[in-house]
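Incident review: delayed structure delivery

Summary: a single-chain prediction request sat in the queue longer than the usual turnaround. Root cause was a stuck worker, restarted by the on-call engineer. No data loss occurred. The affected request and its eventual output are reproduced below so the record is complete for anyone auditing the incident later.

Affected input:
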Amino acid sequence: MAAKLPSSGALPEGQHAGCDTSGLILVHRILRWLYRELPLLIREVDAGDVERAAIVGRYAHLDFYALHMHHETEDIALWDRLTSRDPGCALHVDQMRAQHAEVAAQLARIEPQLAPWVATADAGLRDAFAGDIETLRDTLAAHLQQEEDDIMPVAGVVMSQQEWDWMEKHTRETLAAHRKELGKDVMALQVGLLIASVPEGEREEWMRENIPAPIRLLYLLLMKRKYDQAMRELYPDRPVPEMV
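Output delivered after worker restart:
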């Protein structure tokens, strides 16, 4: 069934302009961390080590999926709405659309390289793969910064909290719907990465304010263990690099 598209133009009845966009900063921290770490992990795989290539490759696939999903969600929820409510934002929105298209084009070059490298752990394929991801990393870094500077302030004024929250709901539902493809630990990875994106001294309070009590309990009892196992798999011989 196709996802119901959020409306643009006027605010829905009963909703009010003004929303807290700070959650996007956490998502951007995760993306910056993923694409900073991924080429390093790939370059560390020894030539011919197909077992390790398979492990890193699985997380590479998840990273690519996450970026596609994040940008597709923004394409649905943000651009038409922002330009209809604040026409002065149109130039920045056009830049965002163009940057999303460039990221998609780079992913289209990168993703077909994954399976051949995983199958062979070939050093030449590895280095070309990592190099293209590093180019994407730099493209993404510039895009995320401009989005924070030029888009988030406008969204915070013209969108309702319900409209903003739809993006998180859509992301959660999409991941849940694709658990068979992505792995049963994908929800634990999502929650664990979100928690890791919050400075350590603020995490307990952030969890109380942003994660419902039943989910917090589930995370502590089950999901945290799955997240920790995933991080040990990625970083078997050193601490997990800090996100913030």
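Verification: The chain is about 75% helix and 0% strand.
Action items: add queue-age alerting; document worker restart procedure.
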